[in-house]
## 1
Amino acid sequence: MRICDLRQKEVINQCDCKRLGFVGDIEFDICTGCIEKLIVPGEPKLCGLFGRDTEYIIPFQCVEQIGEEIILVRVKEDEVLKKCKL
């Protein structure tokens, strides 16, 4: 699987069946090449015109399953929702 394939998959939290969004970016360990975190952009500001101020930083060990169209994760939303760095 390629990284661009991950970006086309919707991330869903199994704890509350909430749609978190689509993968926007990843963090990986440069030494091992292993994915460490999935980054999913949060809710847009005012009609999407002013960007986003939050994002979900999901540790890869929280990924339960990767399917053809979705990625199932098990996270506590308040622990993975972070303010965007400017």
## 2
Amino acid sequence: MTQPLHRRDFLATSAAVSAGLVLAGRLPAAEYRTKLKKALIGKPDQETLKSWKDAGFDGIESSDRKVSVEDAAAARKAADKLGMRIHALLFGWANFNSPDTSKVAEDVAAVEASLKAAGAYGADAVLLVPCKVGSMPMPEAWEFEIEFDEKTGMVQKVAAGDNAKYKEYIEAQNHATKASRAIVEKLIPVAEKARVVIALENVWNNLWVKPTLFRNFVASFDSPWVQAYFDIGNHVKYAPAEDWIRTLGKLIVKCHVKDFLLNSDGHGGKFVDIRDGSVNWPVVRQALEDVGYSGFMTIEGSGGLSLEEKSKRLDLIFAGK
């Protein structure tokens, strides 16, 4: 069976209208059952933890992918004393689809080490982008119309019409899915022993670029130790953030908070500070509520804002404004 991917225009529009009424003061602000926590990305040293705690943050996502288990355990003690949480470790890019087997082995070993270090941090997830593809003809972000086999996850078409020019990309997409699936499955026992989730992200790697396809890939592992790390701003150029959230649902274990300003024609754009872009934050907040997401919302980027302003803008997002 093939699965076409389309935006849910009616739902998005209806939610946007409701959000606009809230902002206009014509409807009361929503009360949410889900509880969100504030975090940033950085190295969890004493000074950083203290300053972020004072600015109103609840935790940190460690960017130190080479931290030792011993140093991670020491950082956890420092964080615990301050009432802060090192909630995740950002591993980032891997090359599981590389033809260089030594490079693949090197990345696998590094991810294993990160899972163990994350456990020592007291974190419950490692962000992993398993691979990327590029340097070949592929559709523009707004041209993607993907069809794939739900049982195998293999892509058959990526755009309307004749897909002959995308043959290499389709093959690369399917190879990346197979390679990533095989290696992540081998990492699951390490994740389970460390009690740390492998949180898969598709950050502009030209793979799994539509919500249903990414959900199919993550869900194919059928394991509580493989979930999705959803970056709100990264996906705007492909589909509205609320569509991703509602499609991924309970598979979302962590969220990055980022914003992206689409061009006036909706084609392309640029990253901007949170709440300054095209993300409809009231609708996103309601989507998080609807799928039952409670957890950390970690700002990535927005470097032009002070700690206090970042904290304030997160408060507004959490309140559905």
## 3
Amino acid sequence: MDLSLRINRNTGLKGLTFWGQWALAQGFVVSLLFVLAEQETGKVEFYYRMCATLAVLASVPAYTFSGVYRKRDNYLTGLGRLFVGWSMTMAALAFIAIICKADGLFSGQVIMGWAVYGFLGQALLYAPLHAFSKYYQRSRKSEHRTLIVGTGDLALGLAKKLSHLENLPLVGLVSNGALPDLEPGAPRVVGAQEALLDLIKAHDIRRLYITLPLSEAAKIEAMYVDLLDANVDVVWVPDLNSLTLLNHSVKVVDGLPAIYLNESPLTSRPTAALSKSLMEKSVALLAIILLSPVLLIIALAVKFNSPGPVFFKQDRHGWNGKVIQVWKFRSMRVHDDKEVKQASRNDSRITAVGRFIRRTSLDELPQLFNVLQGHMALVGPRPHAVAHNNYYSGKILAYMARHRIKPGITGLAQINGCRGETDTLDKMQKRVEIDLKYINNWSLWLDLKILVKTPFTLLSKDIY
């Protein structure tokens, strides 16, 4: 698995670029609103002061989401992002005003002038600060000339990532053995490790990345000792490519560096996890209310189609391996379920109604109640029967790691075609790989994209 290098871009120049320009822009728009309001009414009413406060608060997520003040953008692209961010801020304020029935308090002339002149003023402020940011970046560029020790996949991957950072110009690679034959377009090899100190002086290097494997720990230590007097920043990027990493990160624990190889997103980002839970429970409750007639019709159809209960409840593994009961509309005739067997094409156990609701995935709707209970999520790895997990856990690497996040009604694997029976190890292996990819890249935005794409996959030919 590729090691994803996480470089903290929220400090230094990016912090100056975003927060500095944001603070100036918000100071301007707040002052503008107060001036316009005073010209209109002779004083700044409380509701205008509240509007200014909400505008400042709303601009943080709006500008962050829109990518305003990115230092790599040219001026026109930056203006476009600024327009989107400002429009989102104004839309949020309008929504709040309508919900609170406060829109009648504000002067339309004041708000319209604020919206137009607010953007134009921010655009004028953006021009000199954007130019200063570019100048400062170019002036610092020579101060971070970089070498990478190593020529393996990790070194090449790191070089590709550094190429996106304009203030970290890469001079080349340093070979720790025989000079390799690299593909065209790869960074050049400037020399061998034995001549590292000379290379640092010759190329005026200010930062050195070491990407040697863990098996060469003694060589890394000796190299570091030699570099203490070289006036160069030394950064070690551990080669963990042989490990299956899960939501990995690098943190500091009371002054000690710590590499988190395996961590649940629900524990590493509790605030985001809370947002995910609130969003999904709200959507699940709304869906139950809106779909209640459909739920009632399906329940009656299941009841009258064959004898037995309306709902089928099965033990499956949930978050952190805890056993939960997953609800579905019963789609099969009541039968001996001592040996859990996956449904297959033309399965004789499936009823006529069951075949339709399985084909359209309507049998999964009761899992909305599982979401309200907190046992499941709308989006996550699909839960498998306990017996299936016991079977596959010894045959597929990191199979149970997919339970480090709540199971979902839909997931990244499902919208990528991994649905239906997993009658071979290869099919289950592919599903697990996509589930782990979801965990490693989880975000609310990814969840929203999966939810939007899910309806277009419900009629897959692999569902039966």
